[in-house]
Amino acid sequence: MKPPVPYLAIELFSNLLFKKIGPHIFIPGLVILWGIVETFQGQSRPELQFTSDAVSKTSTGFVTTYQGLIVCRICLGFTEGMFYII
Fold first, then answer.
1. Cα gap 62→49, rounded to integer Å
2. pLDDT tens sequence across 29-56
3. At a CB cut-off of 8 Å and minimum separation 6, what does 10 contact?
4. Cα–Cα distance between 81 and 74 in angstroms, integer?
5. Residue 48: its pLDDT value, please?
6. Where are the domains of the chain?
């Protein structure tokens, strides 16, 4: 299975960052960053996450609007794309 195109661009950036700062800082930092993004996203019921009202009623994280959920998903994709080097 091939990764999506944005993941490839993020992978290039993360490889450069990985070589610059080293694995002893990069990998734990990436895990912490991923955990922060997941905390902000929270959990919402999949059948209701496409309406802004449903997101604000079912979210357990800090995101309360549909736009916030989209931004959080983009940030999550960025952090997940960096995991491909590992």
1. 14
2. 999 998 888 887 765 545 445 555 554 4
3. 77, 78, 81, 82
4. 10
5. 45
6. 5-85
